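User: Predict the full complex structure for these chains.
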Amino acid sequence: MLHLQFDNISAKKVSLLHGISEARLRRFCEKNQTLVDTVFKSKTKAGYHFLALPDAKSTVAKVKKFVASQTKAGWKHIVLLGIGGSALGPLAVRDALISPFAKTAKLHVLDNVDPAFASDVLDNIPLAKTLFIVISKSGTTTEPMALYAVVKERLQKKFPKDYQKHLVFVTDPKNGLLREIAKAENIITFDIPPKIGGRFSVLTNVGLLPCALAGVDIGGLLKGARMMRESLKKNKGFYNVALKLAAVQFLLDQKKGKSMTVLMPYSNHLFRIGDWYRQLLAESIGKNRWSGPTPINALGTTDQHSQLQLYNDGPNNKLIIFMRVLKPAKDLKWGNVLPDEIGFLNHKKMSQVIDAAYQGTSQALTKHKRPNLTIEVPKVDAASLGALFMLFEFEIALLGQLYKVNAFDQPGVEHSKKITKKLLMNL
Amino acid sequence: MLHLQFDNISAKKVSLLHGISEARLRRFCEKNQTLVDTVFKSKTKAGYHFLALPDAKSTVAKVKKFVASQTKAGWKHIVLLGIGGSALGPLAVRDALISPFAKTAKLHVLDNVDPAFASDVLDNIPLAKTLFIVISKSGTTTEPMALYAVVKERLQKKFPKDYQKHLVFVTDPKNGLLREIAKAENIITFDIPPKIGGRFSVLTNVGLLPCALAGVDIGGLLKGARMMRESLKKNKGFYNVALKLAAVQFLLDQKKGKSMTVLMPYSNHLFRIGDWYRQLLAESIGKNRWSGPTPINALGTTDQHSQLQLYNDGPNNKLIIFMRVLKPAKDLKWGNVLPDEIGFLNHKKMSQVIDAAYQGTSQALTKHKRPNLTIEVPKVDAASLGALFMLFEFEIALLGQLYKVNAFDQPGVEHSKKITKKLLMNL
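Assistant: Here is the predicted structure of the two-chain assembly.
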């Protein structure tokens, strides 16, 4: 299970100006256990419904059955057409669990209407060996629908009689444009539960279907999420890690001027979780001028050579959340290869080098009074990912209550969409 | 040539609370033309030496000669071992100009000591067809040297007589550990000019060699940089785009509370420029508690479905810099494919869709009083990239003077390195 290490946000370590005393954090968590209770009580309500997702064993069974039915088609490429939550969740899972050199079907995610980017993929993969997954709840999302237009035209031209075979829709169970098209043209569909918003959808068919097709253990994802949920139910107040994380982020932002949250895994495989979390935090909490810490993605050790100068010496306005992998999937070692000047690097394992770098950075930041905390991930597997998703989604549901905003809408993106639509209508 | 559009940072558009009046910006630029003059006068000094790099035609000739000499080796993989500036520049160029489906040698960048990530690459590419480029000025950078240890051991085991054939070093012309190893073991080397820091090195052999091996027109990179430099020499005060950009960023940060700079290209191919710029800005200017805007990377339209809610409605503390590509490398179009409800998307080109989305977002942000500006890129080619590199490097040299910090050192990363070294020594 995940372990969270909060030592380096304490006033004792980083001063009262930049940190929080343990007593205060304890009181704050105890007082706000009611927010945790509210989440569990609201489990079947819109937004909060993400809590129930890990129980959907029938969804897993249906996906697995579909994946098995597709083996004879021998897909070499799975192309996901989707954007926002429909892309960032699957990308986080793919990059964490599937090697780019794997022999399984390759999962491409087209999450942009950049013509150069999209045609690069669409012109280079063999249509005959490709399954396209179109993801949109309403079927009116501009990006996937524009991409779908290109793909459908190409498929119909090449396979006039059975182009449908190359298409799967993930959409609302009853309503919306994709649902209508699917009915009219006899295309296989998978449901998105109606009470779930895009950024909370990774543990629905949105994440499960593409990842299963690419070879991910989707049962493990749900199992990890379930275990985390149970732990959040059992452990209360100061001992509830989602509440503690939310409390730290809220207090550091509102009381100590830490208006940015950096998510910095020491693991390339976990890097994309940062992109997924950026949407989760930004869209859920960024609602008014006093509410909305800015999420930032970073990668250790890579960003030690890019961002660390700023984090250590620049304005003290960030909370750094490290992720540390305790047991890497593979390791590398070497003998007496390097000259004496850097002889301390000889006879090492690479896992020791990255872990020492994590410790060096965390200790240096603490010495510079920069609050930081660490999520220890036992290993990068489906269960850990599922646990991370649940932890962060739960945390956001709490942050919404702390900031007194609706964590489940996103009114601030509508204006841009309207102008875009008007411009396209007049072309 | 690049064109910069500053309309949406004006007080007229986004209010005096969040924008700058044209008169003030004009006065500020005219007063600070002296900073531009200082950069040109300091051309041969440490740090400022980046200005002279585009003239290094002999470097290009030497690289091209080497590339030609390697054709008979038939490398299928080029693996770069480097971190920070040694990785982010080459990655930005690679992702902008080379399709992942290209038939040329594939450029892999190992910029982390993550054992799972590194072994994924090293265990899956055929050593016999791989050339490794080790980049470190001193030869003591932990990450590339640890990776080099693994690679050298494997190469020596597999090719005991001529493992050197698979290695090239890019390092200091005279000093340092890689230089010593190269001499002792007869390994081909390329120089990094001694007066150039890592984050300003993309137009040296650091960027040129790996990119040329992967098929990039490196002459075009330098030509674009030269053209930008000449334009920055000729156009003064309010008409100097680097000065205007620096002025806007500085004034918005210091006077209007825009402590974050978001770089948001509407182009997947330009996305990695954001990573390169993050290091450039963060390491150069992040020097003390009142100096250091935080750089953030984003991608249009993708991040409209992730960050935009926060940018539009959250705290008004960001400057958004868009990049807009006027002519995409390829385009996609379609006919009457979609149902009437989204019929406005029919008979469109994808370039129209992404451009309408850019306009919608830029207009919506402006309406919400969020200052934003746009860099128009005529097309994504080597010359445009070279121009972007020069523009941003020059801007940073000006920002250093405005913030009164040394833009060319990075003392804040040493502490972490020391602790890391001590930890590894005691293992």
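Chain A touches chain B through 127 residues (CB under 8 Å).
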